[in-house]
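Before going further, learn to read the protein records used in this course. The integers have meaning only within a learned vocabulary of local backbone shapes. The record below shows the convention in full.
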Amino acid sequence: MPDLILLDIMMPEMDGFQVCRKLKGAELTCAIPVIYVTAVVNHQEEAKGLECGAVDYITKPISPPVVLIRVRNHLELTRRSRMLEALSEELARKNRQLQLLARMDGLTGLANRRFLDETLDAEVRRAQRCGTPLSLIMCDIDFFKRYNDRYGHQAGDDALRRIGALLQRLFQRGSDFPCRYGGEEFAIILPETGAEQASHLAEHLRSSMCEEALPHAFSDVSNCVTLSVGVVSAPASEGRSAQWFIGQADAALYRSKDEGRNLTTAVAFDP
């Protein structure tokens, strides 16, 4: 593709104004600068040409040094414009990456607490509009402090990554939203999911963690890493905010802990 087009105005069949409109109307050529080369220029023609998209006029008879200087200047402007466009695209790409990183947990690859709060709030509002049920699972690694103290923090990080991978395998529906809530606690938003299905998914998560058979010799409930799980299911209503769902799921989780750990507690609310 040309970097610059020198275009006469007076031509047979199609004049320069028509040609310029065609060039500016095509996606492939619209960004190419056009300079008119013409023997006759009045204010009306100059305005018409600029409205068509031309960037400059060169009058005949031409002066080769002037033509070279103008061509060189416009090529330099084009080069800088393309460089600026490339830099802008790169900056936009970097900003998208930063936004994504700001919403992701670097250790597990799951969404982070900030992203959870944003998503849960949006899902609650959507469930309120559509009258659909919403469920939230919260889970916590049993005796994780002992695990870190005895096996070391690197092993603890490996365990968190292992659970993150498990959540990504188990919750693959497009609407499922697993995240790391903080520390050794995880949460999963389940839009359009009723109590029975949510309870089944929560218990499947707990049992799947046992099947991972990640050794934990210092646990009081098992010889492997286990999860205590709480799940709340309810139709979203005006009085049931995102914080309400978090509070109810958290209370169910701590009931599992109080009753012996490595348990699933599910609570459901009517409309």
